[in-house]
Design goal:
Strand content: 5-15%
InterPro entries: GAF (IPR003018), GAF-like_dom_sf (IPR029016)
Radius of gyration: 23 Å
Protein name: Transcriptional regulator
Shape: globular
Number of domains: 3
CATH superfamily of the largest domain: GAF domain
Pfam families: GAF
Organism: Gryllotalpicola protaetiae
Strand order of the largest sheet: 5-4-9-8-7
CATH architecture of the largest domain: 2-Layer Sandwich
CATH class of the largest domain: Alpha Beta
């Protein structure tokens, strides 16, 4: 069984046979795993995508860059005992390719397409920890939290949306010690940059094309979970597998409420949450008729059911993504994903409630667990800059001679005045 020991400046580290003292970034990852009560001798990834795997990954944004990744990475590792894996933003592996013998060995630890290797599921691994930290990382052998993975080494780098910088997924090389050779991390970083450049080129080319009449998307594209972007925006943007639909403020409000309250809302409850003043039933019904037409074009097969009102298929809010990142302890990434208050111009009571819940969850998580650098970044936001508790905590964590302290002190004094 594993034991936890206190080792002075090294903090708590797992004293398992064959483990050496970890690097700081690995130690932090181990701590997060222990906080989630993961057992290093019993943790296994969950196979979350099975029957729907093909449809999901064919509709994923990274599907279009897979030929590039195969050309730059896979063909060079095939037959060399190494694997190239590409996963989504939640840590689920979508493609695992490379040496056939290595793939067969990797199956024993469920390093297979469809398995979730997020850090909050399996502890320290290159794919999961790279997503949690939002930067490239190399994990050597016993650095892995899960003892089943000992004997393997890996390097992983996240891939971002070229415009919003939201995480789209991760590229990983797994195998023997060559997987963490000095050139591997720069190679993966260059591959990720090439993939992001191709995604941007595809998007720009799409914008230059004449817009065709609305048509039903291919089933594969419809399989990915649509994302509703509302943070820092007064209107909505619905992203269905790369197909973008702009939404009016009222339609964005209704979809946000139905996405947040997935169990459904009565007609009266939806009216009270969606309108700042009392609205008639006929007003809501007319708006829902118009919204159903928009959904019929943007998301065929997604409808608004009645009694209660609810979506027939879940939409993910960008606010949900921020909360998920906070739950995973990825504070820096969560703060970067928080583009601003949700529908800041909306006076709808239900939107104000979601907006405040998200703001409070972000603040509390950063105050409790975030590093000094992340707190300083939050202190530069409109919310953080007027929050004395945030400013004091950032000041407490900053080194005594940090040049960042002067600006924090100046803001605190201004607040006190």
């Amino acid at each position: 069984m594993d034991q936890v020991r206190d080792d002075g400046d090294a903090g708590e580290w797992l004293a398992l046979p064959g483990r050496s003292r970890p690097r700081g970034v690995v130690l932090d990852s181990w701590r997060r795993a222990r906080e989630r009560r993961l057992d290093p001798e019993r943790v296994l990834p969950a196979l979350e995508l099975d029957a729907e795997l093909d449809d999901y990954r064919n509709g994923h944004r990274l599907a279009s860059v897979m030929p590039l990744i195969r050309r730059l990475l896979v063909r060079d590792v095939d037959g060399e005992g190494l694997l190239v894996a590409v996963g989504d933003e939640l840590g689920r592996l979508l493609w695992v390719e490379g040496d056939q013998a290595a793939r067969q060995r990797a199956e024993r630890m469920l390093f297979v397409a469809g398995a979730n290797w997020a850090e909050d599921r399996v502890g320290t691994s290159a794919p999961g920890t790279a997503l949690a930290l939002d930067h490239g990382i190399q994990i050597h052998d016993t650095d892995h939290f899960d003892t089943v993975v000992h004997g393997w080494s890996c390097t992983a780098v996240p891939i971002h949306d070229p415009e919003t910088r939201r995480i789209l997924g991760v590229i990983d090389i797994t195998g023997d010690a060559r997987a963490i050779a000095p050139f591997t991390l720069p190679l993966l970083e260059a591959t990720a940059a090439a993939a992001e450049s191709q995604l941007l080129a595809e998007r720009l080319a799409e914008r230059m094309r004449p817009r065709p009449a609305p048509r039903r998307p291919a089933p594969a594209a419809a399989s990915a979970v649509p994302v509703l972007h509302l943070l820092g925006r007064d209107t909505g943007e619905l992203d269905a597998g790369g197909r973008i639909t702009s939404l009016s403020a009222r339609h964005a409000t209704i979809l946000a409420l139905l996405s947040w309250h997935r169990q459904g809302l009565s007609s009266e409850a939806l009216r009270e949450l969606a309108y700042p003043q009392e609205a008639a039933e006929v007003t809501l019904r007319a708006e829902l008729v118009r919204l159903r037409r928009v959904l019929a074009s943007a998301l065929p097969g997604v409808t608004i059911d009645t009694h209660p009102y609810r979506l027939s298929r879940a939409l993910e809010l960008d606010a949900h993504q921020v909360l998920t990142l906070l739950e995973r302890g990825a504070h820096r990434v969560a703060l970067a994903a928080y583009a601003g208050p949700l529908l800041p111009g909306s006076t709808a009571p239900g939107i104000a409630e979601i907006r405040e819940t998200l703001r409070q969850r972000l603040r509390d998580a950063l105050l409790t667990d975030a590093s000094a650098d992340v707190l300083v970044q939050y202190a530069a936001t409109p919310d953080g800059s007027v929050d004395a508790a945030v400013l004091r905590e950032a000041l407490r964590q900053l080194p005594p001679h940090s040049p960042k302290r002067a600006a924090i002190v100046e803001r605190l004094e201004a607040l006190e005045r």
